[in-house]
Amino acid sequence: MGDKVMKTVEVTKATQPLADYTRKVKKEPVIITREGKPVAALVSISNADIETVSLGSNSKFLALIERSRARRKAEGGISAEEMRHRLEKPKRSKIM
Asked: Please, which residues have CB within 8 angstroms of residue 11's CB and are 6 or more apart in sequence?
């Protein structure tokens, strides 16, 4: 692998239509900078729906996941088999 410089665009010089930048992200991310510091990134997204993308960048959701992982690590969890058992509908007996 060679050293590849990522495409960057200074926000004050980003004058092309957004559609032009989105075509460029198929090859590599486009980093938007302000005074040389990164402020945003345009990246290609494949195999993801809008909910996945939204949740993946939602700080409250990510914090919830981290708390959940920490709790599971500290307290343990239950097996998939036990979860299925707990969620199973009780069978009704037939009355004749």
From this structure: 32, 33, 34, 39
Tokens of 64: 């919830």
Q: Per-residue pLDDT tens for 35-82?
A: 999 999 898 888 788 888 888 889 999 999 999 999 988 988 888 888
Domains of the chain, by residue range, sit at: 1-45
Predicted TM-score (pTM) of this structure:
0.52
33 DSSP 8-state letter: E
Position 40: which residue type?
Answer: A
Burial degree of 78 (CB within 10 A; 0-12, 13-18, 19+): exposed
Q: Which fold has domain 1-45?
A: YefM-like fold (3.40.1620)
**Are the CB atoms for 7 and 30 separated by under 8 Å?**
yes
Of all helices (H) and strands (E), which one includes residue 42?
A: strand 37-42
Q: Kindly state the tokens that stand for 39.
A: 């402020």
